[in-house]
Known about the structure:
By secondary structure, the chain is an alpha+beta fold. The chain contains two helices and eight strands, in the order ααββββββββ.
Amino acid sequence: MLRILLFALATIAAFGADDPWAKVKEIKSGADLRVYRKGTAQPLLVKMDELTDENLIVVNKNAQMAVPRDQIDRIDSRPPKPRWVKETTNTVNNGENKPPAPGTEGTAVGSTSSSSTGYSKGSRPDFETVYRRPAPAAKK
Length: 140
């Protein structure tokens, strides 16, 4: 009985690893998607909303739409872009960059330090293919 249970679990795990739809399930809501559909030349440029076993639910210009799984040839994804990136710079200037004089306990005359923080928009990562329609089984 234990051998049958272990075999069943191994089969389920192997099936899940080969399921191309499993990678799509890992995409977070809000991620940018390029969805290539059967019979269309241009992909849909949309945002991920949710996923069912039958449909990919996306947001296209504030309108929600469902794309049937059997109509999808390929899905490319990139994570939501970071809104802002914090950059902090600290500098220390010891006057003329000379070592401190003996007896000044490590502080040179005219020593200054400064710190600045800035924010910039982060760069967008490239799209990665996360789903490709499996090739149909060969006919015998």
